[in-house]
Amino acid sequence: MGVPGRREGLVHVNEISQERVSNAFDIVKRNQEVYVKVVLIVNNKIKLSMKDVNQKTGKLIEKKVVQQEAVEEFTKPVQVGKNNFGAITGINLRTEEEEKKKGKKKRDNSPEMWERDRLKYWSKIGITDNKVNVEDSLSDEEEYNVELAEQEPLFLKGQTTKAGIILSPIRIIKNPEGSMNREALNAVQYAKDRREVKEQQQRAVMDTMNREQAQNTQITQLVINYLINFKAIRKRLG
C-alpha cells in the first residue's frame, strides 16, 4: 500500500518492535529515520507499523519469521519466569521432584536446625574458655575518709542551726494554684452548700407537715368530744 506525496502517520507503541515495548523512547529517538509499513488509511489518517519492516535493510519481514518470533516470545516467559511461575497463566511450572527438594530445603532452614548448628559451633570452640573471671576484672578498691566541716559556708552564713536559729519542721500545705484548681474547689464548695440548703428546705417542709398534722388531729379530737358531749346532753333532756 503506497501513499503519494509527503504525509504523516502514527505508529502505535505495539507496532514499534516485535518485542514488548513500554516506552517508545527506549527504541527510537526524535527525528530518527526509520522504515515503516502502511497498515491502514481511514479518513486521511494513516496507521503505520515498524515491526513488519527490517530496520536495517528496509525489506518487509516474512510472516514465517514473524510467527517464529511470536512463538519464541510466547515460550520466553516459561523459560525465564520468576519463581518458575508462568508469566502468562501464573501456573506453577515446577515438577513434583522440584517441589520435594524445595520443601526439604525449607525444613533445613528451620529455626531448630539453625539452633542446633549454633550449639555445635559453640561446643567446638568451648564455652568454658570464654568465661570471665569477675574477681580479676574488678579493679582494686580505694578507701576514702569523709570529714564533716564544722564551719558554716559563706553562702549559708547566719541561716543554719550553728548560728542559733531554731528551724521548725517543714510543713506541706496544699494550696493549688491556677484558675482550673480554684474553679474545681469552688465547684465542690458550691455543691456542698447547695446540698445543705436542700436538706434544710426538706426539714422545714417536714416540720410544717408535722405541725399541720398535729393541728388536724387536735381539731378532730375536739370535734369528736363535742359530738359525744352533745349526745349525752340530748339524752338527758330526752
Automatic annotation (TrEMBL):
Annotated InterPro entries: NA-bd_OB-fold, S1_domain
Coiled coil: none
UniProt KW keywords: ATP-binding, Helicase, Hydrolase, Nucleotide-binding
Name of the protein in question: S1 DHX8 helicase
Entry's Gene Ontology molecular function annotations: helicase activity; RNA binding
GO biological process: RNA stabilization
Annotated ranges, domain S1 motif: 1-51
Highest taxon above the source species: Eukaryota
